[in-house]
Structure formats: C-alpha cells, structure tokens
Write a structure and sequence with these properties.
homotrimer, about 450 residues, alpha+beta, six-stranded antiparallel beta sheet, about 25% strand, elongated
Chain lengths: ~450, ~450, ~450
C-alpha cells in the first residue's frame, strides 16, 4: 500500500517527474526495427514518456528519433519527406539529419541559410538497434551508457521473434502483473464442469507437441498451478534487479518453482519455460501516464524459432496479443476484450481469449492509473512490493546524483528466467543455482534474500 | 428562475452533495430484474448517482450491488466469475457475497485468509426486487425504510410491462418535462396542411382500437389538447409529493383535466389515461450529473397487458423509447434524433418520431445541465416550480436531520394519475375526488392547494 | 516570434477577448446562402467566434441568426419550426422573428402573452447577403457599417462560385499560410525522379486548356516557382490591409511576381492568377479557438465560370477542398489526409492530394493553436509578420475606441491580387501599378513599403 504521493511518484514518467528522471537514465525500446523497414522509408510518430517524436530511417539505414516540430514555423516533420539522409519539412523544405542537425534551409539566400542553420538544430535522441528493436536514450545523449545486453538481442535473428502491443493503462500496474505469477492459478485458469483446470486456450501453445499428442509433463505443471493457488514467494536481488521465485507444491514432496526476472526499470523475463522451451520477456514503455507499449520478445538460445511457432506468436499466443496493424489488440478495453460469458461459465476463468488479453484486461480494470492507496497486499505480492522498493530507491539515487541500479551495467542484463521442479528442502538460491547453473550469465548478488518460509503479515508489506 | 447555486443544488446528486444526500434517503430503481435474468448470470456494470457498482444475482437468486473494486489489488469485479453464491475476482480469486462479505481468499494460507477476510469487506447496497425492478438503497443499509408501494409493482406481472432508456442530460430537466403536460399541445402535436392537429404517430398507440377503427372519444381529447394550448394548472400536495392538475377547455362548458403525480424524489405517474386505459409512470435516476436512466412502467390494475400492446411498448411507443440492447435510444443526441425536416413541415410539429424521443430531444436541448438562472416561467410551469420547492425543502429537511417527504411512508406511493372530463365549475380537488374516488389509495392532504383561477404573474414563480 | 501573451491575443476571438472585440467590429461571413436555400427551410446551427447561434430564412427570405436558447425554459430553437415569418420553439410554441423579437406566446392567456413578449426578445445578429454568402455583424447591430465591397460579390452570379470547408485548427495559422506564397515551392511541389517539379495534381486545374493540351506559359511559371524557392517579399500597406508581393527569378532577367492581398481582419485574395484567369479568395472565420470555417470564393470579372470549371471547384480543386455534405474535408486530420507515402516518394512533395488539403494538413500540423513563442522567422515570412502587426494595431485601436483599419471603409475591399512577369528593375509598387493599372479599384496607399532588396536578419522580424 502506498501513499497518494508515492503512487504518483511510481506512475508518472513525463518530463521533469522523479520517475521520468529515472527512466531517462536507461535505454528504452522505442519501436520495432521493422516499423522502419528500409532506408528512406516513411517516418513514423513515436510518443514515449509523455513526449512526441518522429522516427525515420535515413538513406544510410541510421535511425533518427527527433522532436516533431520544425523550428521555422512549427510544422510537424511527420509530414516531411525522408530523402537523401535527412527529413525535409513539407512546409518550406528545411531539412534535418538523424542527429537533429539542420542541413538545408532552401527558402532563403545561401548566406542567410548558413547563419540560420546552427540556430535550427532540433532535439534528437541517441538511438541504437539491438534484437530487431530500436532503442532510444532519452537523457542527455553524451551520457548514454551501453545498451543492456539482453540474451534475446544476442541470439541470431532466426532464434528470435519480437513484437509489441498497446496497453491502455499506466505502465506500472501492467508491469506488476508480470511480476506476479500467483495470478496464473486464477486469471489464466480453465474451467471444466465448474472447477478450475489446466489453462484454457493456452493448451495449444503450451501443451501440445508437434504431432498433436499431449506430453504428460506439461499437463502435470498445469495441474500444479491449479492445485496450489498460494505459492510461496522469495525475492533474490542482483545487479540489475530481482529474481522472483514462487514455489508451489508438486508431486512426491517436490516443489514446482516459477522464477521471474525483473530488470530495472521496466523489463521482465517471464517464468513458464523449462530449459528446452522458448524463453519470453517483456518491456513496459510508458507512452504517457495512462498507456504504454508492451514490447514482447520470444527467443531460444540454442535453436531457431520454427515457422509454425513464429506464426502462432505473430497471431497472438502467450504474451503476444492478437493485434491490428497499429499494434492495438483486437480484444481491448473498448470491446470488453470480447468477453464471452458463456465461455467464462463453461471453459475459461475469465471468458476472455488469450493469456495476453487476460493480463491486459485485468491491468486495465485497475483503472487508468491504479490506486495503490487502498490495497490488501499478501505474501504472493512480494514481487510487487520489492519492485516498488527498487523503483523508489532509483528515484532517490537519481535525486542524489547516483547511477541507478543496472543503468551502467549492460552485462547485468544477461540473465535468464524459467521453471524447474526441485527437492522440497532446497531454498530459492539453491534452486536458482540448480536451474540456471552455468546457463546463468553472472553470479547472483544475494545481498537481499528472503527465506521461502517467511510469510509477512498482510498489510505490513 | 433559480440562482446558480440553487440550480447546482437541484441538479447535483453525487456523493456528498446536498441533493445526493436526499436521494440516498430513498430507494432507487437500479436496474431491471431482467438484466440479471438467472441465478449466477453474468454480472453487469451499474453507475448511479455518480458511483460505480457491479450488480450480480447469486446462486440463490439474491441480487448483490457492490463496489466494483477488489480490495486486494484493485481489479474490477465486473470481470469476475459469478459462482456458488458469490462473485470471484478474476485476478487472484478473492470472493465476495451479495452483502459484500469476503468469503474466500485462496491465494494465501487458510490461517492468513481467516485474518484477511474481515478486512476485505466491500461496500454493498441494500437491495430489493419489486415490480420486476431491482431497487437499491444507497444510504446506510441499516436505515433502509420499506420500498415504496407503487401500484405497478403490486399488480400481477401479466398486468405490467417495465423498461428503461438512457437520457443524455441531467435528471431534473427531464423530470420537469414529465411534470409539464402543457407541452403536449406543441411538442407532441401533429401537423396537417400547416396547422397543428391531433398527435402525429401517437395515433396508433393512443387512438386506434383493436379492430383498426378510430374511437371518436379519443380523437376529441386530442382536439382539446390542440385547441387549448394554455391549460390552467393547480398543484395539490400530499404525503409523497404532488398531484398536478391541468384543465383545458372541452366541449359543452366542460373542462378536460390531465392529472399528473409527482412522487418524491424522482417519480411521476403520467396523465393521458382514462380509467379504462393502461397507466404509465417514470422514474428518473441520475447516472451522473449529465445523464440518467428513465425507468418506464406500464400497468393495468384490472387486466393483463395484451401481447399486442406489450410488443408495441417494447418497440417504443408513448413513454417507451425504441432502444438498443444497452437501453440507448435509437434516435438520440448523436444523430439529432433522426429529425426529419420534411416530416416537420408536413406532419409533425418536431419532425422527430416518437413521443418519448420528442421529450428526450427537448430535454437534451436544454443543455447537459439546464441553466435555470435565465428563465421566463409562466402559469403552465407551476408543476415545475412546485417540484423545485419540494426538492429544496427535502434538502433542508435532510440537512436538519428530518426525514424528507415520503421517504418512510411506502404507502403514500399507492396513488394514481389520469384524465377526466368534468363540469366547468368543479375545482381540482373536486375533480380528483370524482376521478379517483375509491380507486384513490389514500386521502389527499390538501394543505397546499392553488385555485385553478390563480395565474401568478410571470417571473414571480 | 511572439510572447505567449501576444500569441494568446492573436489567436483568441471568443466573447470578451481583445481580438474577439476586433472581429466584432467587422462583418463576418457566417454561412453560405445555399445552406438556407428557400424561405421557411430548415434552420441550421451556426457556431462562430465561440458563440452558438441558429440561422433560419423566414417566409420573406430574410435571414435570422439568433441565439439558440428559448428564453422560456431554455430549449434549443434549432429543433423549432420555421413557419410564417418566425421560428417557433418546439417545447411550448414561443415564436421569434429574424430580428429576435418574440411574436407569439401561445401557452398563456393573450393578456399575459402581451406582458411577457417584450421580456422575451432574444439576441439576433444583423445580417446581410452578398456574393451568395450570408454575412453577420457580431457587434452591436446599431453600429454596423456597410458590408465590405468585395469584387466577387459584385459580379453576376454566373461569374462566381463560392464554398466553404472546415479547418481543424486556430484561424490565424491557417490565415498565415494564405499570406505565405513561399511555401508554394515546397508544400505544393510535384516530384519526378526524386526532384521537385511543377505542381502535382494542380496540373489539371492550373495548366490544362480546354482541349487537353498544355499551354507553355503556365508550365513556365511552375518552373519558376520550383527553381526559385527563396522569393523576395515586399509588403505594401493600404486602407484595408496589405498587398504582399513576392518576386522570383524568371527567364531573361525578368522577375515573376506573385501578389497577395490581405484584407482586415481575416480575408485574403490569393496570387496565382494572371489577368485572364479566375480570381480566388478566402476568409478564415473562427468557429472557436481551435477550428475555423474557410470560405472560398472564385470569380471572373469579365466572364462566366464555365460548367466544367464550376464542377471542378465543387469537387475540390485549388483552394477548394473535396468536402462532405457538412463541409468537412474528405481528407482530414482524423485520416492523416489520406497521406500516400508512395505518392510522396514518386510524385508529390507531401503525398497528400489537393492544394487545399496540403495547406490544411500543414496548418493542422502546427497544433490546435500554433506556438509562436518558438520560431525562426526569415525573409519569406514578411507577410506573416506584417499581418500580425496589423492585427495587434487593430487590438490597440479598438482598445482606444478608434475604428480599426478598413472596418468602416467598404470600398477599400474592392481590390485585386494576381501574378505578373516584369522587368527586373521595377520595384513592387511599380509592378503593382503595371499589373493592376486601371483594373485596380483604388489607389494604393504606399505609406509603408519595403524595398525588395531588404532582407531583415532572421530573428529580428
């Protein structure tokens, strides 16, 4: 539970806000590389952290993300021509390169143009491309650290699929949903004859093998998710964020562990994957305070993403929503996510089709900006609580001039998430060691850890 | 004419407003029973008096109207599952009964759940069903008086038809339209060769007999409505509101009386019916300050509503609008009520089809909240003036801790409205006595009455 | 560049604003005469200068533009009946004539009606019709000067075509676009093999003769427009505004001059026409501070507008947009003006079809109200700068009780604009003399003139 002021601090990321200052110390996914498919292709509008930009790919392939306002008379450069290594304003032909330099002023004499150009520089973000995503650094470009070294960006493109989707609420509540694997036992549950069962409509994506027969191990895990709806959470901190570990009772006195990564300030690697499975991750990038882009990444460290899986992801599956050409989900707030009450009665806990859409609906339902001044947090909200603590620490760090966690440590982002079944007497650190072993990119910094037995009293979180 | 402050007092009914406090002392129609057709049917959103709720019918048939916010993390219970005598949140499965008690918290240990449940009670309105309408008491549930004893709720369901429709303006101006039978001579008039005539398109509903021939008595009344456009109003006060009597010149030195009931704080029984006719009534329930639900009731004390009449009402006739599945009128503000200027020229005073839609258009046209600081009231506005006086008196009563008129007197609502033709020398009380006689549920309290000759000077009302 | 306060002064024209006071000293085009095609035709809503009105043509053909609120109970007179020389309120039949006098109150006794009528006068604008346009004077009707004597209004209707179109931004930036012929070299340019060429899609309207062959002189002018993108501006002031002259290099040491009229406070006669061509003009009338109607006039002093040209203008050509039945452009903000990026790459500088739509898009793109506190003005913005000076002078004049420029001088509006090719050593005044000669309605008052050589330093304008 937060004060109204804390809630405001957590959720506002516009220019000049404390959390906005934090976000401007980190690289942000700005758009998909495929939104700018070719040199000199059409410019696109980009709104992020409450600020408007125009993005374009110049003749050399370099991406510019610049303020949209021509300094001459304020026309919008979105309507400009992307030509010969620059974006030319449609009104009087003033031209700007990807770094924001004014390179041509054709409606005055050459002498006047020479004097005017240096006054006509426009703001340009520092940009980079990694993992088929265009990243932007919204702070002072001179201070930009290296781009975080995500594994999904390091694998060959054949091993990767990326996308994005619109979320019509504040970024933080959507991100909190990603750190809360407890809801999997409810929000994503199926219904059979009135009782919760393995997940509805995730069947095909998660539990079907290529020849159509069902693999028993996957069904087992779904059963454990349903049978134990009160997982025990442990949060392990490290150099870029948190490893959030949730243990559920499995068979034979074993525990089923789902381990989620939170990476500062707005990334998560999801649980749900065993070592042989495709890995998944998200970034929640604020558009403004009441909407965000959720970037979605799927990758496999060792093998290509097959065409069939790629098609499934592109059409909406797991964390990937079914979206239109503007990356707006087909099932969304305006149409109540095509909620089917008959389906809810007979086959799905929510009646909404799609894991992603179920997450989206419940986050939207918390309001444009969730009110955290009235909450009853419990043990399964540990990840949410630790996330908020890290975000507030980062605000304090930036305020004091200290580099916030992970911002200058690109290598700390080379981590993994995933599931495992382990002996019942191992603690979270031991399980993580066993699960990730030498697959784990860097040693855990276990400075803050909680025993899995510790269940904080509700309300004290 | 009101001051700006009085107009604000009259029209605002949100939490904490003076008129909101008045409304919260009375039972309110909240939704139609058929919107929750079966036990465990889908929950529906309800917004009334500026407050959001979720309504559901539990397994036992009991209706719950509860705040929509799950106290755990603020997800909206509209997306919940209505199952086994409770509404279960889609996020983590917390479950609430129709009284707002939290009856299950499955994502923590049973011991923690036990401690948490009592903190997790949510607000629930006291509810009742009468006349195929779900009523709610928005005040402290312990204080709820009996539900008002409307005749339409007392007759067998075969004798009754109920509906509702959206009005896109403040409740009070729409209600005032219902208390002003003078406008019938204009707003609802037909046009024939450039002159006002009997009502356009009400013909079928009001003046056609079952075999298709027209009954002369009904045509006569329409003629009187048109011929005398300046009816004389008398307001008789009683224990739940006002009987508003409007006299028009009829034939042979008789008067044609239309008598409307206003019942505190937002009900009206309409004039227009002779003893053998179906009776009609409305309630205007604020959704917020710029829209309201108008509940519509048709009933006959002595006989069933025939299928043919029932179909006509369901499709839009008289006070019933033609509405879509969400009870939004087909002809509405956004499409200018499908106003047909040719029709207006040749056949209808307004060019808008439907009595209800004509009323709706003119009320909307007064603005989202009518400005009553500039008015030129005249004698036919007497009902409007008396209505405002009663509403302000109720505000004062509630402020002083006094029960407002009718709030604890369910029996006072067993009254009737209707038309009659009477000798020209009878006054309103004598005519009401003659018209309602032993059909009148309780004696009139005639403490405040005005002679029908008294025509207050314009502007002094 | 303006201060924030100056920008507010320039752009706000609602009641009580300084610029609103200026506009209320001049006649304004309010609607097209054909929007009220017949006596007693349907009334129409008119919103201008932030104020709502209802316009109607009475039985005698006289146009009334009255406040929409019935003084009785505030119903909107738009829903009224236009009958027998007056507009009758749909609620209780109160009736008003075109001058705002209440002429009937039928719902009270004749005696009361007599007393009430004189209190029930509603505001009515003084109106006039000229050039198939209904003009309104928004100030005190008694002070109304004669309607400005535009040539387009003086020619026979066979020689004229008028229209209007919605612009979804503040009036002043759209008007400034009309005073800036420099943008013609960019915004309206065509593209051929990557280079700017003669204008895309203006070809048909501007450069095709009746038999389909292209006239070389017109192609020449298009070439000059493209080849010289830095025209030299001179502003000549006169009794109703400014003659703005822009010189471009032509062939054989001649100059190609485009001369635009700005007429206080919101009219422009466009350049682009040689003496044999159809003349064109615009008025920008604020609807509110973020939208305006642009009235469009085409006329020929000496010959009829042929059917073929008339059809072309009606369908959208040159300054005439392709509009729907409500005068809303088909290509507009909501659909990004159907911007075609392929077209932009291969054939059109903007990718937007239509001169009018290109102007519209770029003005919209400056924002709902352009921010003039950040600009880099240069020599081609001289017209914009002089326009702002005149507008601020008018604000000052009105503040001091002085009649603003042109407001009482109807004859000063009988001026012309147009193009010419002249010897390179003539200055703007000499060229204007040569171009307009005895066609020029009144002598130029050349009190303020700038030499065409003077190129003010950027930023000092």
């Amino acid at each position: 539970m937060l004060t109204a002021e804390q809630n405001q601090t957590l959720t506002r990321t516009g220019p000049g806000t404390p959390m906005g200052d934090v976000f401007r110390r980190y690289w942000m996914p700005a758009l998909l590389s495929r939104e700018l498919p070719r040199p000199d292709c059409p410019p696109v509008r980009v709104k992020l952290l409450g600020e408007d930009f125009v993005a374009f790919r110049d003749s050399s392939g370099r991406v510019g993300i610049v303020e949209p306002r021509c300094p001459h008379r304020g026309a919008n450069l979105f309507f400009g021509r992307n030509e010969a290594c620059g974006l030319r304003c449609a009104y009087h032909g003033w031209k700007f390169d990807a770094a924001g330099q004014c390179v041509d002023i054709p409606n005055v004499t050459p002498e006047v143009a020479q004097r005017l150009k240096h006054k006509a520089t426009i703001r340009a973000l520092k940009t980079a491309e990694a993992g088929e995503v265009v990243w932007a650094f919204f702070g002072e470009a001179g201070d930009a650290p290296p781009v975080p070294d995500f594994e999904y960006a390091a694998v060959p493109s054949s091993h990767r699929f990326v996308g994005k989707k619109l979320q019509q609420c504040n970024w933080a509540q959507a991100c909190e949903g990603g750190l809360d694997t407890a809801h999997f036992s409810y929000l994503h549950a199926g219904i059979n004859e009135g009782r919760k069962v393995g997940l509805h409509q995730v069947g095909r994506a998660l539990s079907e093998s290529d020849d159509g027969t069902v693999e028993p191990p996957r069904l087992k895990r779904l059963r454990w998710l349903i049978e134990d709806g009160a997982p025990r959470f442990t949060a392990l901190s490290h150099a870029a964020g948190l490893l959030l570990c949730a243990a559920r009772t499995a068979d034979d006195e074993q525990l089923y562990w789902r381990m989620t990564q939170f990476l500062m300030p707005n990334h998560s690697l999801t649980p749900g994957n065993f070592p042989e499975d495709t890995a998944l991750a998200n970034t929640w990038v604020p558009i403004d305070d009441t909407s965000c882009w959720i970037f979605c990444y799927a990758w496999h460290p060792d093998r290509p993403i097959e065409d069939r899986e790629r098609e499934r992801l592109a059409g909406g599956s797991g964390i990937f929503a079914e979206v239109d050409d503007d990356f707006v989900p087909i099932r969304r707030r305006e149409n109540d996510y095509l909620l089917d009450r008959d389906l809810q009665r007979t086959a799905s806990f929510t009646g909404i089709s799609g894991i992603s859409e179920q997450d989206q609906a419940i986050a939207d339902s918390q309001g444009p900006i969730a009110d955290r001044t009235q909450e009853l947090l419990c043990q399964t909200d540990l990840g949410v609580v630790r996330f908020r603590e890290l975000m507030f620490r980062a605000v304090e760090d930036v305020r004091r001039g200290v580099t916030p966690l992970g911002a200058h440590d690109a290598g700390a982002y080379r981590v993994r998430s995933g599931d495992t079944v382990a002996a019942g007497d191992l603690d979270a650190e031991e399980v993580a060691q066993e699960r990730f072993g030498d697959h784990w990119g860097r040693p855990l910094d276990a400075a803050i850890s909680m025993s899995k037995e510790a269940t904080p009293a509700p309300g004290t979180l």
